[in-house]
Design a protein that fits this description.
The protein is an alpha/beta fold and 321 residues long. It is built from ten helices and 13 strands. The strands form four sheets. It has a seven-stranded parallel sheet with strand order 3-2-1-4-5-6-11, with helices on both faces. The protein has a two-stranded parallel ribbon with strand order 7-10.
Length: 321
């Protein structure tokens, strides 16, 4: 039996599908299941039980002997939310309870951290754990993820295997419900479909031309493959970057989306909104050597491969993974 929290969401629902592909069918999904637009993310998947997130710890106290692994991927991920109390409750304190339960019941754990912990990137994007207390995220979401990473590293009681994954810019199927927090590829596809053109943020940094801002875009199929690897690996506990390891420009992303749709590129620019301009990241790139050093040797999707698969096999036909 494998538990996936946040299971109706983007990355966790893809993980449930990947687990099913590997014949893991005793999946317990944990979430707040009141959001109707997330329902299709789990439709048709082999699931043993649905557990409301508020009831999860009572459920675990009764069923822990059957649980083989917990993927704690549920979180409030809105980077524009500034109510710290929301993040303390859902991201920090809930995660502490998951951790402590995994310690008590000796259940291995993989949890979601975030590249938002790196803030402006002044200390780089190296998942060296000694750097984590020095990181300065740019918003309460990043703070909540970094606060939990710091807390986890300070604990003397730890699950016998655990890993925190710093997700970079994940994109792919099952993000239809995410609204403005969906990936840039999702928004690019919809803009092109609606208007035949795409508007990118103008650069306000003299080091970067318009559209040349760079991110580490990682395809969700790679993310869930890494989760599967760690579930079987169960050693080398720690905090790991999870990106593609290769920064690419927003211009490249847009051009690849036009190409996958068979549409002639038409790109213009708008000023980055003042509300996010001061905290805007111009470059992120995951150093992936730590994950590689413990034996993960599968190649990651290139941006070209990932965008083409996502657009042609999911977005155009409106399919889920």
């Amino acid at each position: 039996m494998i538990v996936v929290t946040g299971a109706a969401g983007f990355i966790p629902s893809c993980l449930v599908s990947r687990l099913n592909q590997a014949n893991f069918n005793h999946i317990v999904v944990v979430d707040n299941f009141s959001v109707a637009k997330k329902e299709n993310n789990l439709k048709g998947k082999k699931i043993k039980e649905f557990v409301d997130r508020d009831n999860f710890f009572d459920w675990l106290d009764k069923n822990y002997e059957e649980v083989e692994f917990i993927f704690h991927l549920g979180a409030r991920t809105d980077t524009t939310e500034f109510n710290k109390d929301v993040f303390d409750m859902l991201n920090l304190n809930y995660s502490k309870k998951v951790w402590n339960s995994c310690c008590e019941y000796q259940i291995p754990l993989v949890y979601a951290s975030s590249a938002a912990t790196y803030g402006s990137g002044t200390l780089g994007y190296d998942d060296e754990e000694a750097l984590i207390p020095m990181l300065q995220p740019l918003n309460p979401y990043g703070d909540s993820k970094n606060d939990f990473d710091k807390w986890a590293l300070e604990q003397t009681a730890k699950p016998f295997f655990w890993a925190g994954l710093k997700f970079f810019n994940v994109y792919g199927p099952n993000e239809y419900h995410k609204g403005r927090m969906a990936s840039v590829i999702f928004h690019t596809y919809n803009q092109i479909k609606e208007k035949g053109s795409m508007t990118l943020f103008r650069s306000h940094n003299p080091k970067y031309a318009d559209g040349e801002q760079m991110r580490d875009f990682v395809y969700v199929k790679d993310v869930v493959d890494v989760c599967m690897f760690l579930m079987h690996h169960r050693k080398n506990s720690g905090i790991y970057n999870l990106g593609s390891g290769k920064a690419r420009t927003f211009m490249a992303l847009a051009l690849n989306t036009f190409d996958a749709m068979g549409v002639t590129p038409d790109i213009d620019f708008m000023d980055t909104p003042l509300s996010i301009r001061d905290n805007y990241q111009y470059f992120t790139e995951a150093n992936m050597s730590k994950l590689r050093s413990i034996g993960y040797d599968k190649p990651f999707y290139t941006l070209e491969e990932g965008v083409k698969d996502y657009v042609q096999n999911y977005l155009i036909p409106g399919k889920y993974y």
